[in-house]
Amino acid sequence: AVLDVQAACQDVTVTQELLKEGFHRDLLLKVELGVMGKDAGGCTVAARTHLPSGIYVDPYELASLQQQNLTKAVLIPAVIDVEAPEYLATGLVVLLCMERDPRCSGCFRAAVPVHGRYHRPAADSEEALVVLKSPEVLLCCCDSDLSGECWKPAEVEAPCSGKPNGPCQWYSIRHKPVYEEPILHVPVGLRQHSSLVCVVTLLVTVLCSSLILAAACKYGHFS
């Protein structure tokens, strides 16, 4: 019986994928409940993922997507400094409510736009690596009677759509670890180029300021 429970728990699989290229990507999460999915008809499935300081979700962009009913997510903390570089930022938690995948029984998916932060210049590498750990799969089944060997109670600050008129307990599901964690490659500058960058920046600033001053003197009206 113990082996059967472990097999049912391990039958739950999670995959993550970073779509697009560059600093602005989409994080796609997929959950397959396997044997458990047959009894999860009235359940709500969510994924709680911890994003490191090198990547973030724009709360204003997320609010716009929520208004269009394109995603359901909660950010912790809710206030995020989108301008901070990686070395001054902190990690955050994203709680994503997942939608059923009509092409697969017991499958759920969700996507959220993420953005890479600027990193410190490096000494010997032109890119920094941001590794995304496997998310925590959460299940809320207010109207279903499922075996509880595969999960443990979890504290989640989000309502459960299975029981909108009252409280409902969320559970964290045991699942297979992600075999390949997605990695965001963020371009960084080289320290030996610092002097050149400073000189070029100063020259461009002086040139642009001179052009603006010349245009103001030529076309401006001074009393």
Automatic annotation (TrEMBL):
The keyword Disulfide bond does not apply. It is found in: Endoplasmic reticulum membrane. GO terms for biological process: GPI anchor biosynthetic process. Pathway: Glycolipid biosynthesis; glycosylphosphatidylinositol-anchor biosynthesis. Signal peptide: none annotated. It comes from the Eukaryota. Keywords: Endoplasmic reticulum, Glycoprotein, GPI-anchor biosynthesis, Membrane, Transmembrane, Transmembrane helix. The chain crosses the membrane at residues 194-217. It holds the Pfam family PIG-X. GO terms for cellular component: endoplasmic reticulum membrane. The keyword Membrane applies. It is a single-pass membrane protein. Belongs to the PIGX family. Stabilizing subunit of the glycosylphosphatidylinositol-mannosyltransferase I complex which catalyzes the transfer of the first mannose, via an alpha-1,4 bond from a dolichol-phosphate-mannose (Dol-P-Man) to the glucosaminyl acyl phosphatidylinositol (GlcN-(acyl)PI) intermediate to generate alpha-D-Man-(1->4)-alpha-D-GlcN-(1->6)-(1-radyl,2-acyl-sn-glycero-3-phospho)-2-acyl-inositol and participates in the sixth step of the glycosylphosphatidylinositol-anchor biosynthesis. Probably acts by stabilizing the mannosyltransferase PIGM. This is Phosphatidylinositol-glycan biosynthesis class X protein.
